[in-house]
Amino acid sequence: MNKTIRPEHVMHYKTHANSFFEALPVGNGRLGGMVFGHPQKDTIILNESTMWSGSPQDSDRPDAHRYLPEIRRLLMEGRNYEAQELFSRHFTCQGDGTMFANGANGAFGCYQVLGSLRFFFFQAISFSHQSGDDIKDYTRELNLEEARARVHFRNYTGEYTREYLCSCPDQVLAAHFTAKKPGSIHFALTLDREENFETSILPDMTLQMTGQLHDGKEGHGVKYACHVRISAVGGKVFANSGRLCVTGADEATVYVTAATNMQGFLGRNIRDEIAASLSEMEEAEKKGWLAIERDHLQDFQNLYKRNEIAFAKPFDYTDLDLKQRVLGYSPEKEDYGLIELYYHYARYLLISSSREDGLPCNLQGIWAQEIQTPWNGDWHLNAQQELYWLAETGNLSECHVPYLKLTKELVEPGRRTAKAYYNMRGWLAHTCTNPWGFTSPCEDASWGSTTGSAAWQCHHLWNHYLYTCDKQYLEWAYPIMKEAALFYLDMLVEEPEHHYLVTSPSSSPENWFYDEEGRMTALCMGPAYDTELVKSLFEYCIQAGKVLGQDKEFITLLRDKVRQMAPIQIASDGRIMEWLKEYREALVHHRHLSHLWGLYPGFLISKEQTPELAQAAEKSLESRGITTAGWANAYRLAAWAKLRNPDKAYEALTMAFRAATSQNLLNLAFHCDENAEEPELPDIADIFYPFQMDGNEGHSAGIALMLADDQAELLEDGSMRIAIYLKPALPKQLSEGYVKGLKLKGGFELSYSWKKDGTVEGTLKNLCGNSAAVFLGGVMIAKSSRTGEVRITCPVQPLDTTGHNRDDKI
C-alpha cells in the first residue's frame, strides 16, 4: 500500500451541533445516541432498536384468494385499471396497514426515539458568572476507527474534554468527562421524551425513565426502561428536583442502559425490561470507563479495520470544519478525502446499527429523533435492501446476519399470507414489514402490490453464501429459499400473447404507466422486476441444491420453469422493458430502477456476458436521468459502475454530495419532480426531509464497485470460479490510491494500489480454495487456485505452469 496516502477516518467540526443533521451518531447495534456537543446545554438523543409501537395483527384478508381469478382475468384482457380497482377493494391488507407511513398509533407501529438525555454544564457559569461566551479552541469530532465522539474546548475556568462511546460487549452508552483543573466538573442531567414516560430517582442515585408505547389497539404496547447513573472521581453526586447532579468532580462517567420487553420475532425477548436495564447498569459501573473503553475498541476495530480505501488528494481539507466541506462541495474542489470519509462512515454506521443477535438496521439505522419516524422507520422490501449492499463487499459479513434472520422470521407469517391471498404453497412478503411480521399487501394497490420481495430477500441469503462459502450456513438458508420458490412456482401463469410464464398480479415498485385509455395504472402481469428476481431465485435454488446434493427432481422442475419464463426484453427504443408491454411511462424520471434489478444487485446483465442487454440497460439509465433521493442516486451510481462507465458513476457520486448528504454525512431522501429532466436540487443547508441510511450504504457499495467487481460461476463439484475485475469503473479523478481488505465472492480478499502510470500492485487472499482470475482492462494479470495469497502486479510478471506468479508465497 502507498504509505504516502493517508486515508480519512475522522469527522471534524469547529462548532457544536444545532440539529440532528449535525449531531454525531454512536451505536452498538441496539443502543444508539446522537451527540450534539454543546458546551453548556448539551443533548444526546437516545435510541434503542426495539422501541416499536404497534403489535401483531391479523392483516390478511381470509377470503382474498376468491378474487384472484377475476383480477388475473382482467389483467389477461388488458384491463389493468379495472383489475387495480378490484385489487384495491378486496386484495389489499385488512385494517389500516402501514397507515400510509404514519403508523405510530396503529397496529403496524413505528420505530420511535427512546428519549433525550439533557446536560446542563456549569463550568462556564461557575454558579456565579452567567456568561458562557468565552469558549475557545472548540473542536468536535467522530473518530470512526475508535467509534468515539469527542468534544474539547477551553474557557476562562479551564480546559475540558468529553468522550462518548456505545459499547457492544457491555451494552452501555458511556460518556466520560475530564478537566485539566481538578474539581472543576459540575453538571446536572435530565431524561425525557415527547410522550408516554415517567422519571424518578432511585435510592442508589440512578435516574430511571419508564413507559409503554401504543399497541394500536388498547394502548398496552411495548414497555421500556432507561437508566442513567453517574460515577465521579472526587466531588459529589446528588439528586435535586428530579435531576442527577455532580459538583466539584475531577472526572465523571455517565452510564446509560436501556431495554424493552418486546416479544417480537427478533431481538432479546426480555420479560422484565427494568431488571434487564439495571443489571447491565450494575455490570457497566462495576467494570468502569477504562475497561469498557478497552473492550469496546477491541470489539469494534476487529470489524472496522478490515477494509479501507484511500485516494491521492491534491488538496488537504482535513483542517476545515466538515460542515464547510459538505455545504461548499463542488467537483472542482477535488475533495477526494470526502469520498474516503463517506465510505468509511457507511461501514461505521453499519457496524454501529447491525450486530449479531439484534434487529437488523431499519431505514434510519437505529438513529431517530421522532415519535413518528419517517416511513415508520420500518423495513421496505422493494429497494431498501440497499441497507446491506455494502455488508459483504465491505468485509462485514457478520453485520449482514440480522437481516438474513429477518428473512427467516418472515416465513411463518408469509405462509399465512400466501394461503389467504393466493391459496398457494410457500411464503411471500410484499412492500413493507415490521418486527410484528407484517407480510400482507399494503393498503394502496399502486405501491403495496409488489410480489418480488421474498425473492429479493432470498438474494441476500444466497449472496452471503457466495462470499462466505459456509456450507453449514447454506443448509440453514436453503429451506427458506426453497419455500419462497415454491410460492413463485405456484404463482406463475401463462400470459396470452407470447405464452411466457409470468407473475400475476404484481407491479413494478412504485411506478405507473398509462393504459390504452390514458389512465394511470400500476397493477400488471410479469413486470421485468419480478421476472428477474424469480429467475434469479430459481437459479440460486438450483445451485444451492447442487452444493448440498439435494432435490434433484426439484432442480429439474426449476430449470424447466426458467426456460418458460419471459426473457428480459428490449423495447423498440432500445431500452429494457419495465413491463410486458411497451406502456407509456407516467413518470419518465422515476426514482426506482426496478427493471434494472438484473444488472444490480442481480447477476443477469453484464458487459462481459450479455452485452446487448447491458447496452439496453445503459439506455434505460440515460432515460431515467438524475434524482435527488439519496438511495435512488446510489442505485444509479452502482448501475453505472456495473456498466463500466466511470464518468457517469462519478457524476452520480458528486450528486450524492450536492443533493443528498447532510452536514453529518447522513443520507437524505428528497423526492424531486420525476417528470423534470433537470430537477431542482434541495438546499442541504436547510434540511426538512428525512434521513435514510440506505443511501449511505448504497453509495459506498457503488464506490467499492468502482474499485473492483466480480462474477461467480458455480462448478459441477460445488466449487466456484470467480472473475475479478480491477478498476472496472474508476474515474480519472481518482488516479492514484489503494484499497485494503475488499471482500469478493468465493471467499477472496483483495488489497491493491494503483498509480497514474498504470502500475498496479497488490495481493489476493484465497480463503476458501476456489479458483479466480484477475483482469485489468480485459487482460488477465493473475490467477489463484488454492488457499493462500498471490501477488498482483501490472506490468505482469510471468505465470508458472500452476497459474501463479513465480515468486508467489503460498
List the helices and strands and how they pair.
Elements: E1 10-13, E2 24-27, E3 31-35, E4 41-48, H1 68-76, H2 80-90, E5 115-121, E6 136-143, E7 148-155, E8 158-167, E9 172-179, E10 185-192, E11 198-201, E12 206-212, E13 223-233, E14 236-240, E15 243-249, E16 251-260, H3 273-287, H4 289-304, E17 308-311, H5 322-327, H6 336-353, E18 379-380, H7 389-393, H8 397-409, H9 411-422, E19 432-433, H10 445-448, H11 453-468, H12 471-491, E20 493-494, E21 501-502, E22 513-514, E23 520-521, H13 528-548, H14 552-564, E24 584-585, H15 611-624, H16 630-642, H17 646-659, H18 693-707, E25 708-714, E26 720-726, E27 737-744, E28 748-754, E29 760-766, E30 771-776, E31 779-784, E32 788-794
Parallel strand pairs: 26-30
Antiparallel strand pairs: 1-6, 2-3, 3-4, 4-5, 5-10, 6-7, 7-8, 8-9, 9-16, 10-15, 11-12, 12-13, 13-16, 14-15, 17-27, 18-19, 20-21, 22-23, 22-24, 25-26, 27-28, 28-29, 29-32, 30-31
Helix pairs in contact: 1-2, 6-18, 8-11, 11-12, 11-13, 12-13, 13-14, 16-17, 16-18, 17-18
